[in-house]
């Protein structure tokens, strides 16, 4: 086994078809993307504005996750791990907000920064998959179509989350709003 082949096996191996426990948790993760529409329902039911980033992210991540699960994509395990880590922080923050805890603004900024970091990691993992599949010419558990979809998804999310971060935390409108609270 070559050095690149062993790296590819570590980074992009698909345990989905080899390990029933991993397969179960992968299936659970794919199903969780349906459950995440619950927060969308709360937004709509509370008559709050539903921003493009929110529904676009939920719809596309659901489609991509199910597509990747069906393909037993190797890098999906890393996408799921990073996503679960970020969502643990994010949904903890949302739960505290829903319970009317007074949470400092920097926590919201931290959560959005984690989300942006997730997109960077996703792009790096996807670029690694591209390298191993195309340049190193080794057999990996990821298709060229999956690589294209993942890169498109993560780049579009990065742009949308960066725009959200700028508008929510760095814009003049937001700075004036903070000044009025002090």
Question: What are the SSEs and their pairings?
Answer:
Elements: H1 3-12, H2 20-35, H3 37-45, H4 52-71, H5 76-98, H6 105-135, H7 144-170, H8 172-181
Please describe what this structure looks like.
The chain is mainly α and 182 residues long. It has one domain (1-170). The chain has helices at 3-12, 20-35, 37-45, 52-71, 76-98, 105-135, 144-170, 172-181.
- Output mean pLDDT: 86
Q: How big is the Rg?
A: 19 Å
Give me the secondary-structure category. mainly alpha
Kindly state the percentage of residues in helix.
over 70%
SS element count, helices: 8
User: H/E element string?
Assistant: HHHHHHHH
Proportion of strand residues: under 5%
Main sheet overview: none
Low-confidence stretches: none
Q: What is the count of distinct domains?
A: 1
Distance between the termini: 63 Å
Morphology call? globular
Total number of β-strand segments? 0
Entry keywords:
mainly alpha, 182 residues, single chain
Concise synopsis of the structure shown:
It holds the Pfam family ELO. The protein has 182 residues and is mainly alpha-helical.
């Amino acid at each position: 086994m070559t050095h690149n082949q062993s790296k590819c096996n570590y980074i992009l191996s698909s345990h989905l078809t080899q390990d029933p426990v991993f397969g179960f948790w992968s299936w659970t993760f794919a199903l969780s993307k349906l459950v995440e529409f619950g927060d969308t329902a709360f937004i709509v039911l509370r008559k709050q504005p539903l921003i493009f980033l929110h529904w676009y992210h939920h719809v596309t991540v659901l489609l991509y996750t199910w597509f990747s699960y069906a393909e037993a994509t190797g890098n999906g395990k890393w996408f799921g791990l990073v996503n679960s880590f970020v969502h643990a922080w994010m949904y903890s923050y949302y739960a505290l907000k829903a319970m009317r805890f007074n949470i400092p603004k920097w926590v919201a900024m931290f959560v959005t920064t984690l989300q942006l970091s997730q997109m960077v990691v996703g792009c790096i993992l996807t670029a690694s998959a591209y390298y191993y599949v195309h340049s190193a010419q080794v057999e990996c558990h990821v298709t060229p179509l999956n690589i294209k979809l993942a890169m498109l998804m993560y780049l579009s999310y990065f742009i949308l989350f960066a725009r959200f971060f700028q508008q929510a935390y760095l814009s003049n409108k937001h700075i004036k709003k903070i000044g009025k609270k002090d």
